[in-house]
Design goal:
Number of domains: 1
CATH class: Alpha Beta
Shape: globular
CATH superfamily: Ribonuclease Z/Hydroxyacylglutathione hydrolase-like
CATH topology: Metallo-beta-lactamase, Chain A
Strand order of the largest sheet: 8-5-4-3-2-1-16
Order of helices and strands: EEEHEHHEEEHEEEEEEHEHEHE
Number of strands: 16
Radius of gyration: 17 Å
Strand content: 15-25%
Distance between the termini: 15 Å
Length: 278
Amino acid sequence: MNAEELRITVVVDNHASAGLAVEHGLSLWIDTGSHRILFDTGQGPALAANTSALGIDLSQADTLVLSHGHYDHTGSLPLALSASDRIEIYAHAGVVQPRYSIRDGQARLISMPHEAMAALDQMDSERLHWVSAPMWLTPTIGLTGPIARRTSYEDTGGPFYLDPKAVRPDHITDDLALWIRTGEGLVVCVGCSHAGLINTLNQIRRLDPGKPIRAVIGGFHLVAAGEERLIRTVAALRDLAPRCVMPCHCTGDAATAYLKEALGEMVQPAIAGMTYRF
């Protein structure tokens, strides 16, 4: 079974079309015709501003998926939950843990904001689903659950820790992705790809074998990637042969340019305001 119709709109991103709000964050609006999914919420006011400007009615969302528990993907969670009294949330339980980015000895809290955690805590428990393994939201929409880390060249993409003294590394095990079956193949939505973009795509191929990757959209977290990781990511993408690769958010402008130079028309950088139809 495939989705009858699929439209994906980038609502929040680090770059945006004229007239839309820009912020460091990501949110996608996924409309299959029968289901409307908000994938991440960005970090601040851009979600409210851009859904209004784009004519997206958050009250029509039936599902909210959180790719992981960083502030730039969960900050506008209170708005999303207040907009719909029927929305169902899917996330790994690790999204609520404290977490830090530590650079030059300076710890910065990057976990889900307090207000978002409070909104999550107040939600009807029957509509809150903790994802600890791969699952199907519908017969055509799947969630990876925790993603197996099998490549040698992919890591979380940054100096992430579970404590402010850099004692406990944060492997971001709550990282998950979503995919939709279409008649042309699988369309994959990623938040930051902290498990690795290629690890993510390979897991989806194992979970839904025999179907090609049609497209992948979201943050690839290559902003700090070294040359080896970029070279091997390009080689893996050539082997996977998606028709369209749409990097945004934390991919990084330099890495996006590298992918574009190496892969040509396969790469179509995404920004807030763009809508893709499959």
